[in-house]
Here is the input.
Amino acid sequence: MRKMWLIFGGASAIYVVLAMLMGVLPGFALSKIAPTPGLEPLTPLEAEGREVYVANGCSYCHTQQVRPVPQDRVYGRPSAPGDFAYQTPELLGSQRTGPDLTNIGARQPSATWHYIHLYNPRAVVPESIMPPYAWLFETVEEPPANQVTVPLPEPWAPDEGVVVPTRKAEALVAYLLSLRQPPLPGTDGGTSAQRAATASDGMPHAAGSPEHAMAPEPAAPTGADYQYDPARGAALYTSTCAACHLPTGKGVPGAFPPLAGNTAVNDPDPARHVRVILDGLQGEEIDGVFYASPMPPFGASLDDREIADIVNHERSSWGNDGALVTPAEVAAIRRAANE
Amino acid sequence: MQGASDAAQKPHPAQQQDSTGDRDALRAVVVGYTLTAVFWLLVATGVGLILAYKLGAPDFAPGPWFTFGRLRAVHTNATFYGFATLALVGLACYVAASSSRAALYSTRLAWAGLVLFNLACLAGTVALCLGYNDGNLEYREWPWPIRVIFLAALGVTAGNLIGTVAARKTEDIYLANWYTVGATLFTCVIATVGVLPWYQQGLGQVSVSGYYMHNAVGLWFTPLMLGIFYYALPKRLNRPIYSYALGVLAFWTNLVFYPIIGAHHFLFTPLPWWLQTTAIVFSVAMFVPVWGGTANFLLTMRGRVSDMVHSYSLLFMFVGVIGYLVGSSQGTFEAFRSLQEVWHFTNFTVGHSHLTMYGFISFGIFGTVYALLPLATGRRASRFGMAVHFWLALVGSFIYVISLSVGGTIQGLDWMAGKPFIQSVIDLQPFFIWRGVGGLMMFLSHVVFAWNVWRIAYGREPAPAAVPQASLARQAAA
Here is the structure.
């Protein structure tokens, strides 16, 4: 019996101490961390959406944590301890089969895009392997007057009727749109995605710093040595624009305007084309069609060379034949907007 | 001497009656645990196959109950708490009774444990499919009432094993039982810490997730499997463990180092830097129990390579030991920040988790089931059946782990090169296909395993003597 007490009792006692030290005590201490200033608790609808996210295991493919490493800069500023104060259960995730979602509300502020993407991800991202969530939607013949409808691209739309989100889909999209990092106090808004968010939605940012002063220095010389590189333009378009305007440039009817054959894209004067990329756009008529969903501004997150590359890709693809631009021209249009 | 051996061969009638009854009871218990484990293996890896297919054909089986995010948790929990737990607990009962030369303390408790484990797994699986979980918290997704049922099963098992060992005929506790009983007691603590809510808000829950994930694999499955190796290997080889002292050292160092390394799952998060760094340092210290334990097993097998050629149970156990060594050492390297930067969030980690849970634990289970179950039932499976199982599983798992390790590395490098995210998805596709090929072979091998287990439980071929005749002759000649 003595041996049993020594070995089993002793080992268990050691283990209990270690479990307290490595599990319970850090848990208590870290549970008390104050929320990051500017972080708001979720609204009831957003909280419901978070439950839908959890019930369907979204964390197994999407993380919600930004690491202090260079390759994570595209997702926002490094996550701070107080960012997770309202996140129980924790959703940090351990796999990126899909991208990190910490700032998805800033990166993709269009509810319409989220509805289409959830219904079937391949409608907006053809190579996506994300599951379809059509069962979060219903197809009805006559939607009520104020009901949000989902404008699906041709091959994905039902033969008859109109797709509308259920309560669960509305909640989930509300939750996704709430995902944006508050800037850390004393900073100018942090990294590129975060600056795009503060610029577009009027959230408070550091006093005395006009939005356009946050624009970064152009990365490359804007003089005669600019050579448009089609591969670079295509890659930038893929990462930044293709989710809505599609790799084919066709957009989604009624939701995201096509760039193929677009008036501003083919206009010899690139001012309008560049202005829309710098400032974003919402609620305007383009080539005779009205678009309600917002396009975010990219003036703070893209430099002049990157915008020139994207503009040139759009102007030389899908049958478009607009005059190409240089970073110097983009810089001039940016300055003109400030005056 | 003649009188003594007469006495040994003709026990008191009452004793003989009891020991036959005890042997029958033990056999029924071990068969029950093993058969239900096999059932969950087929379910869990069948789900794994569906998941693998969906990564190449994401529109397959749409609808809420089979959506990827719900099935993923079904797969992990059913392999862990259905297959691996049931198989290992059944074997642990056999090891406790046999090494102590005592009857199982209470067959009723053993059956209660069997029912509770299976009930928890069934309820948990259904709950997850219906969308009920306590968070996407890895390996503890079952709603908490179901995890309490699992905890009850653990408690019942601990009591039974301790009671059995307490009735042992020797003064010393055989080393295998240190590991198996210890594992059960530690896991009662892990399950309790994992389920109480008072210290699990926000970042606090993150630190508990790191603790839980790693302690579940390091203080439940690892010591349970190692303990059973410590019985099955000497039994199969008819020779003692190479070094008792080394086994004791590995026991205590595993216990003390493993709990400290949980935070290595959360490097680069806002968890305290000192917690992360301590985890990395002790991840290196883990070389002591891992290499020490592996050396112990390999040296126990020294000079018996020819036996392995004739014995699939030994071959499975050998692969299990190598899986333990390679998988755990890989884990140490993955804990370094420089390598985590590339591999974190990629499929490299999925390769690692399968190298360990399959290459170590599952191969170990297959080997020890083939070694010990025939001793309990007196029947055997065919050599051909075990051979087909072995080669399908081995080749399949190699393809699986290698394809995901390469694909995952490419994923991480794509991100570091600043490529658009979707590029990493496109680049992974061929590796997902290869993983599916490997996974299909593994699944088919489980069907063969199920058939072999059926033969050992209810077949008609009697098991041969525990010791291969060739090595007996060699020992006699030496």
